[in-house]
Amino acid sequence: MKKVINIDFGAHCPEGMSAEEWTLRVKLAYCYRLVDFFGWTETIFNHISVRIPGDEGHYLVNPFGLNYTEVTPANLLKVDLDGNKVEPSEYDANPAGFALHSAIHGARDDIHCVVHTHTNEVSAIALKKDGFGHDDFYGAQLYNRIGYHDFEGITLFSEERARMLDSLGDRHVLVLRNHGIAVGEADIERTFFLLWTVQRAAEIQVTAGALGGKDNPIADDIKTRCAGLTQQLISDSGFAVKFYDAMVRKLVTERGMPW
């Protein structure tokens, strides 16, 4: 029987850094590698960020200009809510990420990790007036859990933050119309699972839309129950951890240790 790989996210912590921050850095770097592994990257663009507990207003984000396969625990940037580096680095951050990520990190205590993507499938649905449907297995899990924000151009400007937060409300998925999505949850594991669910919903919807014939609808009460049960699964960090760890093991098995 093949032995299951054991991934120790806290191993090799540098001197002078807390174990908690180093573990976050390792998990976040793996998250970048996973997004690349699944083909969800947009070259050097887009962001995945995680708030550092106990380090008020500081979060980790990718250095601008690096491919996701070049992101490591050590070269992740630590920035404040204005996008200023709070530790020296040879790299800069992408200002397009601050309006979105800083807004959410600064306003939502229940969201510690935020991912922004615009895959083909997600961007296609963001272009459509009706947005996500909820009559497939994955779409049903997102029923009444998605906010929609009208396109205002590249998200560079701080004055858009309040409007994005209004569009998000108390939800954890934000469709940026004509653009892409942002998803956020309490930790990296739950955020990645939610991202995977949203991406699968987009893929199924785009594929079904290419077929002839009518879709088979799901009743609203069933969709409500399905979304509620999924949220319970996400709230149980043990479920998300199992999923995330399995995806990291798959990554390492197929590509080897990344650093």
Automatic annotation (TrEMBL):
Residue span, Class II aldolase/adducin N-terminal domain: 26-206
SMART domains (alphabetical): Aldolase_II
GO cellular component, one term: cytoskeleton
GO molecular function term, any single one: actin filament binding
InterPro entries recorded: Aldolase-II_Adducin_sf, Aldolase_II/adducin_N, Aldolase_II/adducin_N_sf
GO BP: monosaccharide metabolic process
Family, similarity comment: Belongs to the aldolase class II family.
NCBIfam families: PRK07044.1
UniProt protein name: Class II aldolase/adducin family protein
Organism this protein belongs to: Marinobacterium marinum
